[in-house]
Every structure is written in C-alpha cells, then in structure tokens.
Amino acid sequence: MKLFDSHCHLDDKSYSGDLHKVLERAHHAGVMRVMTIGINKKTSTQAVSLAEAHAGITASVGVHPHDAKNCSQSVLEGLVKLAKSRKVRAWGEIGLDYNRMYSPKTDQEKWFTQQLEIAAQLDLPVIFHERDSKGRFLEILCNYAPAGLKGVVHCFSGNQNELKHYLELGLYIGITGIITIKERGAQLRKLVPTIPVDRLLIETDAPYLIPAPEKRHSRRNEPAFVKSVLFKLAEVRKENPEDLASYVWENTCRLYGLKV
Fold it and tell me: Is the pTM of this model over 0.85?
C-alpha cells in the first residue's frame, strides 16, 4: 500500500528538532510521497528547500488568504521564480477565509484572482482554501478560473451543494483527519460516499488536524497519520483499503503531474 500525504506543512517549527524521524515514520507507514505547502514567501521558500533536499517530498508555493494583506507584486514575482524548481508541483494554498479575517476581504479577493491567473500561466494545479465565504469563493472560481482548471479543495468541510459545484468544476476533494472526529466529522462522513473515487485525495494538514486514533498519544499531526485518514475513508465508503489507496495514489500523482 502506497500513500501520498497531499497536503502538510513540514516547515512548521514543531518539526525543527526531529524532521528526519518524522519522515522515517512516514516511510514506515507507507507514505511514499508528501506535498509540503507554501502559504507566503518565507514558507514557500522553505517548502522548496525541503523538497529539493528529499526525494519523496514535493512543494507548492503561494499566498494563503490569512497572509493576503502582506502580498504584493514583488512577492508574487518571487514565488514565480521559486516555481521554476522541478520540485514545485502546485500553486497554493490560496483562496478565501472569512472566518478568522486575518486579512481584509478586498486583499483576499484581489490576490486570489491574481494567483489564479499565475497558476494558469505556469500550468500548475491549484491548492484551494475556503472557509465561510458564503458562496464568494465559488463565484470567483466561476468568473475568473481559466478553462481546464486543475486543483484540489483542501480540507473539504463544505455542504452537498458546494461539493456538487466543486465536482462540476473538475476539482479533486481533499479529505483530512476531520473524517475521524465523531461530532466534527459527522457531515463529512455523510458526503464522502458520494464523491467519485477518481476525485479523492487524502491529507493530514500536519501539524494540524490530528486524526482521532493518534490524538490519544500525540500533540502534533504528521504525514504518517494519513494512514488513519485512508482507513476511515475506506470504512465510511465500504471499500477495500488497499484498493482505495491505489486509486488515491493515482489521483494525487495525476493532479501533481508525477509518475505513478
């Protein structure tokens, strides 16, 4: 069984003392590939450095909606240069977050649309973040996204209508450890059986969103724990875990343009 953690943040300071052990545990758990995510200029630079230093790691670059207030044309130009690395396989995570409002809506929307254009120019798939945008995220995608848009809705926790629109746009759906949480994951568990198997990705969003089985003994999520996401997803969908793992591996490699 080969697993691909399609979204994590290995640059996080919580890994600074034992990243090599984190990667060893991931490999032991069958996690052969990891996508580490950039959310601003600093973390994107760190993500690319990590990917270039490790065979099983790929990277994305981008400006997260939380960091939109600090974005600029020069920041985006720097990210475009970073994206020239062969280890950069996606742009993101980008989108809208109207929950915490760390950046004004105007800044979030301005840089979201500009980054959509850049990703299209570079022919990179997009890693999307959406939270509490009340339809605005979908509106922007429908109005500004280029034809042939490729991407994944990271950490999907939306409703049935949103899921329907994402699938119609041709997007993949990223499933995190939320699916293992009794109350918080109840709605997600109702929806995941309706997602076509060729649109599913699994992710940890590590060091955040620890799956339920690991919460008992860890205060930090890590790529190895994506195995718990896969097994819960298989249980909910009533599918064989090994078969599902094979589909998800192929989906993730296809999205990020990697050899299966």
Answer: yes
